[in-house]
Structure to design on (171 residues):
């Protein structure tokens, strides 16, 4: 599985729990002679919360590397496995419980910076296993490889909808 990445830090092991919150900004207005009208003002900033644990001899090193990014207080690219990356602020980073000699438990909150564009990030992989519903276009979009190149690299592909379990070369 791909790893959570924030700026220059890649999680050595993904958090044990993550909640990805996406909401719309809707307002209800009363208009005389028409009644209630619901109006959309777009999407709110996405919020990612979670918790996890660093373990091993580098547990505190990992904790303090993220903490230094928190202290910097500037938005950085956030890559959440399965989603497109976006610019975000690390707004909370908490040490939870009593740390052990090689264990650090933490919680975090990221809030999307809706004003800063992010640079598309494609995880470095050479092959991917097709999942139910994957198409050449979805693989192309997720990994930054053109559909033309995918067909060229995988001459046995005969259909745009991929068979689940099929290995797809990306390089």
């Amino acid at each position: 599985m791909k790893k959570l990445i924030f700026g220059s830090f890649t999680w050595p092991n993904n958090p044990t729990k993550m909640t990805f919150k996406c909401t719309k900004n809707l307002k209800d207005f009363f208009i005389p002679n028409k009644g209630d009208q619901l109006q959309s003002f777009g999407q709110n900033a996405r919020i990612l919360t979670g918790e996890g644990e660093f373990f091993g001899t580098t547990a505190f090193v990992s904790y303090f590397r993220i903490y230094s990014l928190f202290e910097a207080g500037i938005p950085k690219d956030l890559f959440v496995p399965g989603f497109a990356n976006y610019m975000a602020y690390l707004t909370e980073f908490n040490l939870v419980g009593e740390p052990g000699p090689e264990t650090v438990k933490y919680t975090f909150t990221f809030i999307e910076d809706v004003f800063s564009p992010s640079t598309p990030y494609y995880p470095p992989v050479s092959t991917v296993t097709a999942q139910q519903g994957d198409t050449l276009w979805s693989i192309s979009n997720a990994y930054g490889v053109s559909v033309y190149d995918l067909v060229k690299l995988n001459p046995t592909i005969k259909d745009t909808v991929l068979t689940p379990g099929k290995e797809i070369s990306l390089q």
